[in-house]
Amino acid sequence: MLPVPAFWMLLACVSAGSPSGVSVPLSEPRSLTEPRSTLEMAHSLTTDPASLGALSLGRPNHGALVNAAQMASSDDWEVVSPSTAWATAETIRYLERAITHTAKLHPGAHRLHIGDMSREHGGPIRPHRSHQSGRDVDLGYYYLPGSEGWYQLASERTLDRSRSWALVRAFVTETDVELILIDQRVQRMLYDEALASGEDMAWLDSIFGFRKKHPEPLIRHAYGHRTHLHVRFYNPRAQSLGSQASEALAIRGLVPATKAVGSLARKNGTRNKPAPGSREDLLARLRAAMPKNVVTRVSAAVVPPRRLPPAYPGAIAAARATLQQAPAR
Ligand SMILES: [Zn+2]
Predict the structure, then answer these.
(1) What is the CA(309)–ligand 1 centre distance, in A?
(2) Within the chain, which residue ranges are assigned CATH 3.30.1380.10?
């Protein structure tokens, strides 16, 4: 690991125009977060990383997480495993918003179970492939009385279809969701419920993958998702900061771009493991999350417009009007 002065000399060199000829374009879109020069970013990373807030690094299947927040249980949800309930502030905010929205529309539900999110510093987490960068969440469906519980099979007999649909709908309409994984048998039950409640069929067909009507549906089938659903959010801020941080450290090979997360994890198993939260620890995690090729590094997130229905059904519109008049919780 480079001592601090060498680190700073390299970064100062970069900021002064990269005289040795290594050219890394710095023109990534930055409108989603406050403008921050490479030098500012490097300064923050090395002197006061907590000031940056959450950074989502790399990709969901090969990434890391810096300055994560831990999801806590509430009246409306229950965290199953606190040690794997870490995420970016954006992910937690989206999750809380969708569940709170559902609970207000359909009071009296059981607490929703929140399963694995990420580990505190992200990276590999068994038995998942993703969940590495603070943007993925496993959570339960809403079940009928007598079937509540984490990891219950969702069936005609057990699934609370109206509440579960309201939850999925809230993810689509109230958050910047990137994808939702739901077994297609459960998708069919939710789709039927939505259609019966008056939702627009064309809109439903654009979000439900089992209908095979849209090239990029938000809700996709994945094996194993009859007992829970998996939600991945865009994190405009944390992804943008993560991209900038990778850029700041990757310039001039300051962060070698070839280290795999697995090899880093093995290395971290030795007694040389840096102290959690130390600068060395932070740099190690940043290095682990670097894409293999710096030139084709992970870009900041470009969040597409939300896929909203053409109009809210009357009952939901009325409920929304009521909610807007109610005092904030
Ligand atoms: Zn998952």
Answers:
(1) 26
(2) 69-235
